[in-house]
């Protein structure tokens, strides 16, 4: 439902932007007409002066006309400045419109992806969907999904992309960046993505998978796709939403798998006793 509300909110913002953009265009048209009127008035005065060189019978009349022309030129310059300001505002609105459109698309894709996440209770399918979401929505190239073993208090990789799963180290809870983020439940992003050097114990991004405040694992990212040089504002929102949906889907699938194993065991015991 959150995805639908966000989508509607984005649509309202897009409509509001279009109204603002339309008013800006109308204002620009008015300015252009006013500028044209002033130009015409100047031409008329200049033409009158040429056709009636003797009409201004004294210097005072000539000065008055020159002052009027100077005032019109100044007004014209002000109008041109205002037109440039309006054009810059229109460009800014256009850029914001594109950003809003991108945000709406991303949220719509996340809504679809979250629906897929909750459409299965098979752990491997859930894990595969999470990997696809991180690639397609976040734009990650090398990353891993690590789950917390509460018996040993350690994080171990259960899935990866662009890097061998066995290469990812086992991290103790509270150890290094990954362990600290799993312990505190906070998101981690390096300050300078451009100069980040790959380090398996210090990822560029570490997102805890949380069910409310309970952390069950983390997503660690080591590199982004070539076309993605930085994170947009919407990405941080996506990380938070993804972490919540992925954690719930993983937790549900593991519970289901455990219940299936127990059911199979009980059924085998019953069969053994009744034979």
From TrEMBL:
InterPro entries, alphabetized: GAF, GAF-like_dom_sf
Keywords: Coiled coil
GAF domain residues: 122-260
Gene3D superfamilies for this protein: 3.30.450.40
Coiled-coil intervals: 28-103
Domain of life assignment: Bacteria
Protein name per UniProt: Diguanylate phosphodiesterase
Origin species: Geothermobacter hydrogeniphilus
């Amino acid at each position: 439902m959150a995805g639908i509300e966000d989508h509607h909110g984005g649509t309202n913002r897009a409509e509001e932007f279009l109204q603002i953009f339309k008013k800006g265009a109308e204002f620009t048209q008015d300015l252009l007409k006013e500028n044209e009127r002033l130009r015409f008035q100047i031409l008329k005065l200049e033409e009158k002066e040429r056709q009636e060189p003797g009409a201004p019978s004294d210097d005072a009349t000539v000065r008055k006309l020159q002052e009027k022309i100077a005032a019109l030129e100044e007004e014209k310059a002000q109008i041109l400045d205002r037109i440039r300001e309006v054009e810059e505002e229109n460009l800014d609105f256009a850029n914001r419109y594109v950003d809003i459109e991108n945000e709406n698309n991303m949220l719509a894709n996340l809504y679809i992806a979250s629906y897929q996440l909750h459409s299965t209770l098979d752990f491997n399918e859930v894990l595969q969907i999470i990997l696809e979401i991180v690639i397609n929505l976040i734009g990650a190239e090398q990353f891993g999904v690590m789950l917390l073993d509460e018996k040993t208090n350690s994080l171990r990789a259960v899935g990866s992309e662009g890097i061998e799963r066995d290469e990812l180290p086992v991290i103790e809870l509270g150890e290094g960046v990954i362990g600290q983020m799993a312990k505190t439940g906070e998101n981690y992003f390096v300050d300078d993505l451009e100069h980040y050097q790959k380090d398996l114990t210090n990822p560029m991004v570490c997102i805890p998978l949380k069910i409310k405040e309970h952390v069950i694992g983390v997503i660690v990212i080591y590199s982004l796709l070539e076309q993605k040089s930085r994170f947009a504002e919407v990405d941080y929102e996506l990380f938070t939403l993804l972490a919540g949906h992925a954690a719930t889907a993983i937790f549900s699938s593991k519970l289901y798998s455990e219940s299936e194993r127990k059911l199979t065991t009980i059924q085998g015991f019953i069969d053994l006793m009744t034979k």
